[in-house]
Automatic annotation (TrEMBL):
It comes from Rhizobium lusitanum. It is found in: Periplasm. InterPro entries: CopC-like, CopC/D, CopC_dom, Cu-Rt/internalin_Ig-like, Ig_E-set. This is Copper homeostasis periplasmic binding protein CopC. Keywords: Copper, Metal-binding, Periplasm, Signal. SUPFAM superfamilies: E set domains. Belongs to the CopC family. Residues 25-120 form the CopC domain. The lineage of its organism: Bacteria, Pseudomonadati, Pseudomonadota, Alphaproteobacteria, Hyphomicrobiales. One of its GO terms (cellular component) is periplasmic space.
Amino acid sequence: MPPIKKMLLAAAAISLAFAGQAMAHAHLKTAVPAADTTVKAAPSELDLTFSEGLNLKFSGVKITGPNKAAVKTGEAMLMDKDATLMVPVTDKLTPGKYTVEWHALSTDGHKTNGTYSFTITP
């Protein structure tokens, strides 16, 4: 095999290996309330569904509301084959914009994090 073909095959193999690793991370697929939406009623819980199962001990959310005030939450739990993180909201939410900062550790040990917002109307 010519050296250039060997190099191209090696590059392709390395690219596939890294692509497989990137796909192994737990990516946020859906959230309720959804990102960048406006809801009329304050949610009693957040449901964040990921592309794979999570390790509950190292996954969670921080919610901040209007004026950057922290929102109290209850104890998170996993549902749907450990791919959905359910977080009870124990504070009374008032109208305004809320930011959800999440962090997740997939069951295979990969960490991910992100942020999204939703708004509650009066």
